[in-house]
## 1
Amino acid sequence: MSKTKVLYILPWLRTGGSERYVANLCRNLDRERFETVVLYRGEWGPVGDELKAAGIRTVHNPMRVYRPDQLFGFYRLLRKEGIDIVHSLNYRPNFTDALLTKWAGRKFVSSRRNLRFWKGSDKLHWGEGLRNRRTDLVIANAERLKQSTIDFEKVPADKVLVIYNGVPLQQADAAKTSDGWKEVRTELDIPLGALVIGNMANLRPTKGQTYLLQAFQTVLRSSTRPVYLVITGQGPEEENLQKMIKELGLEQRAYLYKTSRDRFEVIRSFDIFVLSSLQEGFSNALVEAMVLGLPCVATDVGGNAEAVQHNITGLIVPPKESESLAQALLGLVDDPERRRIMGQTGEVRARQEFDLERMVQEHAQAYGRLIPEKRQDGP
């Protein structure tokens, strides 16, 4: 039986949640059943290198509306390559991918991986409505995003499917037995016995790291323990955050950490994981921290409260409230037994609910329902 050919569309191949999501699918979907291609519209980046190393084909096509040659090139690619499913991760109101896919007689899947923070409006863009009418399936990575898609975008509920992000457990387990976490602390000159609060996210205003720094100042003033804060990531807010660290007098205890190290080794160097986002979809870093046995503090946005069970595997706090965030962190900083229990409980939950293998299998089932004539027998 012939393979189902899936084409993924990404804005670019830089490092990010959507890019890693696609890379994980391409590497782990059964290659006896699926053939994958990644089309990227913008610049090359580290995820492109990963895809190339894994033997995944990539195609560059900007697909600008005012460039008929680029649009025709996309249409011709679908027809020539025999693509069955186009799975687009374009997040702005661009309808050309869906329109050209349907003209080519292919199935079109779109993703909802974040709430509508880019809109700046409470009205549905006409291009989104046009795109949604030509969409066969929407895959959301959290129930809250599914509900938003149904309520705001008026997409029928039977067209929206929730598939949570998955964590590569083998990679996480390798980090648990590695001494890499010690090397991270050595690089930052943090004592091995100190307590580290860690955040891993892009340095953007929507990640709320300014509120985290304010909360951490309160933690330092209120706790007698040697506590450090490590914010791992890159982005346009780096200069502002560095300036804020100095203004708050946190230079000796708070660090912005840019590294090419394995992300699991970095998270393993933390004792408490914190996500201070103002908007979110379903955070990869949050469930990765849970798999590594860390208690988590997260803001009540996106799918955070679906990952972290309040007072069971961690704590959920309102966004933009540095004092609430500080009190939640203090409650864990000063209670090692609570940290241990929450971390252990969260690890069990994450390994059961957010395994990469489960995520891949659920996508394979969804694609199989769209192209039933190519579906193969098996478990």
Note: The chain is about 45% helix and 15% strand.
## 2
Amino acid sequence: MVIGIGVAVTLLVPLVPLFQPYMIQFAMLWVLILMALTWDILGGQMGYNSFGNVIFVGVGMYTTAVVQREMFFGAEYASVAGQSSLSLVDYLTGLGIGMGSGAILSVALAAFLGSGILALRGHYFAICTLGLGVAAGELASGWDYIGAGSGLVTPLPPDGVGESSTFFYYVFFVLVVITFMLLRWLYSCRFGLAINAIRDDEDKAEAMGLHTTRYKVVAWCVAAFFLALTGGAFGNLMVFIDPTETAFAGATFGVWMVLMAVLGGKGRLWGPVIGATVFHVLQETFWTYLFGWQRVALGLLIVAVVVFFPLGIVGWVRERFAHRFGEAVDPAARTEQVTLGDGT
């Protein structure tokens, strides 16, 4: 009932005149939720903190733009870049094929990379993925075919799609719904139990006959698939793709993925959704009222999250109001826990 009302309200938001000037911010919210949800597959559910998921965003973004360029412009693209010269059918066809191609390429890349680096654990895996993200940005900056350091302009949406921000608002919303429902199903079946077992104790999981590497690679491929779809649409929303500031933006999106999942409560399905929403609202507030100090405020937010919300918002609420979630609480055990925590 509550979810149905939320979906109905979400679909009606673009129709409210008051919200029209802010549609790009609403569209951006869905992008951040998608990033947080996909990062949580490895970082929350499986316990592998990846800082390289932004690779798949960039691969999907560039693949979609290149497919659109080669399908309809070819060698003439430089002279028509940034012009709305595509029909509605051509634009949607190119966008769909491009996003699909980016998703396939990203899954193949995740399978190839994952079979090697997912043998690493802990901070070794985190550092390796961080290096991959930086390397991808540098490679894109030197590859003339995709614009190199000058970036790449995507075709402008034709008039038939209406306001591009509203169009992509619905595109990202559909992706969020599909991603959320798929992850909800995956976490409730054997796959979810397997990656949770890897998080709790990978050595014991292997000793019990679980093919941990296989599950880890599949988890990364699932994340890569949805991140590539997100990147393909996001590049068209932004119209211009910069290799390090948009496509492989490890310093922003790469870090924000982690922060949003931790803020909401990693390892919990609703945690990344709540964390991304709160983060986006705070970030827009900082950029509006603390211009010049917004990055300082964002840094303090990261510190506050780690210190005061180690379990995230969802974890904090469930811990304080466990009885409201159907969890039995033993008063004696709680008293003993508090006593031990105080060191008395």
Note: The mean pLDDT is 85.
## 3
Amino acid sequence: MRDPLEEALTLQAKLAELTGALAAEIARPASQRDNDALRRDWAEACRHRPKLASLFRKLRKIKAQQNAGPGLRQPDSHKQQLQETRLLGKRLKLWADVDVLVNRHIDPNPVPLITDRDENISDPALTQIYQALHRLANPNTQAPDAADHGCFADIPMSIQSFELMIQAARRTLLALGRSSDLRFLDVGAGGGTKVFAASRTFDHCDGLEYDAGYAAAAAATLALISPDKPCRIHQGDGLTWTGYDQYDVIYFYRPLRDDDALAKLENRIISLARPGTVVIAPYNTFLDARKGFACAMVEEPLFITGMTQSEADRLRTEAERVGCEPPRRSQSFAFDTGFWEPLLNAASFRL
């Protein structure tokens, strides 16, 4: 008679192979997925569910018998069996949710990237909280040298509008097949509140700020309210800074007053950013009258570097078939997700 733990581990290894194949298909753009293969491979994975559940019940029965025995020190093999049984139970509980997740990737319906432009339905309480955070994060007045340099003072952005743009940027990156180690930069970060807001969506979030007082306030605020997030503030001049190629998303909201200086900043960001960088510029003069520039509009106010407009249009179509909420990755669970890990890490919809 085979050891049920050995059988369970062997079957889970087989499931990991199947979910790996499913993940590879899900990671492709929606228009290029083989939906018949998705359905077939998922049905094959589900075929093993009853056997795995049966093995789990056997393992639980063995655990109950061991617990009923004399209170002697349990050997390491029993400890391993206990741990694997607990993990298997947690993984089995995810099955129904993963079923929904897989089926959402089969020919998903398109949803516009910017899903709501109506500020009138904004949550007043959320707006008030964000404005209070903005004032608390940076109580400083603008430094004279920053004003002389042509910088705008720290101005709050509507948190609702910012959230819509951030989610659209994330969906665009997922449509490009990029789902991990995503890096965000706010140029003209002020007190750092947008850096903090973006940290819910991206893995690493930084700010670049010319005003030394603003930058110091932002660093202190982020250290206080986001100590577990890799958020940083760089104090420097965006017109001379060289680190733009380190980011997947770059946000700026007209940080300079002078049109010529602003154009220089735009040119520097676009020329140094990597191809495929999402640029968020929510003002209506960005890239005006600069045809042939290596940047195209995905959906106002989102742009992407290194693409033609026809390529950006196709990307928008793909991004519209990505989920509107940040997916839940395997590392966000409090336990080892095992054979579900490939699917969770490739998903573009939320579990």
Note: The chain has 13 helices and seven strands.
## 4
Amino acid sequence: MKRKYIILLHVAFWGLLILNHTFALFNDNTYYSFKDQPKTFSLFIKYFFCETGFSSITALCFYSNYLFVAPALFVKRNYLKAALFVVLILVALMCWRYIVEFWFFKPVLGFDNYKGNSITAEFYITNIFYYYFPVYFLYGIMYFFVESWYQNKQQQQELEKEQATAELSFLRSQINPHFLFNSINDIYSLTYQHSELAPIALLKLSEILRYMLRESKDEFMLLQSEIKYLENVIELQRISAKGNAYIKFYTEGYVGNQKIATLLFVAFTENAFKHGVLNDPNEPVKISLQATGNNIQFTIQNKKNCDQKDKTGGIGLNNVRRRLLLIYPNKHSLVITDEDNFYSVNLTLQST
């Protein structure tokens, strides 16, 4: 919470406290010095100033302990300094109370809290020490602990958020390197062969890069944009395989304004291209996406290529799991089935 709002809350609290006490005392006409005066607005103002004066003594006790004694006692562990602050606060309270009662209450408001009796220093010390200090000393200490706990919690949350943001940026920076390098090599081969597919492949790669570098800077993107990006990746794979890649991709349900984490599904798709069999028409790579309201289910299945494995590192399933935990805590389900001949992924999550 911003400092100015905290100050406003404190001012509001003391203002309401003063008004509450003022109305209660005015209603009963409690003070001895005002007993013979009629209940007029002028008398209400006198009660109001009296309560403001007494509350200023209370506030001085509260804030001085909160600002000086508590930090010296519990943060710096300087007990001598804390004891010195206690003595100085007692002296300050006595002086301020004397000023309020005998320089303002009595000459200005005609209010005598002691019915004309003389007041000794011993009475002042004992009265302040037993009435003001124990209660508001404790309140000041309690408020210090509550504020410290709240600030530590906020700092911890901000730190966790910064760490999560940094980690997500790191994870996203690892997406697609092997796929892009392979695509560039494939386009080079198509160009060298003067293939008519070269400009189409280059256009698809351009759209993929544009999405990665510009549109996917946001943490979340429209589901339909992610689908378009995934279609470009699949089409580029088909072109690179010169029509020898059998991939089935279909969507079901209503795709509207749902948003999901950017570059999430492509990790599983690339994994299927990298380790799966693409040239078997009887066992194509099957990719499906089903949208039902805010629930999205993404499934992919591929036949495993046990003879050839690309050893280049991609994002890795551990990174995908980590992204899901950071972005969709308790809002996703990831089931990976690794069989002898087939590999499948079933991801369900709640879109934003």
Note: Strands lie at 220-222, 247-253, 259-261, 285-292, 295-303, 332-338, 342-350.
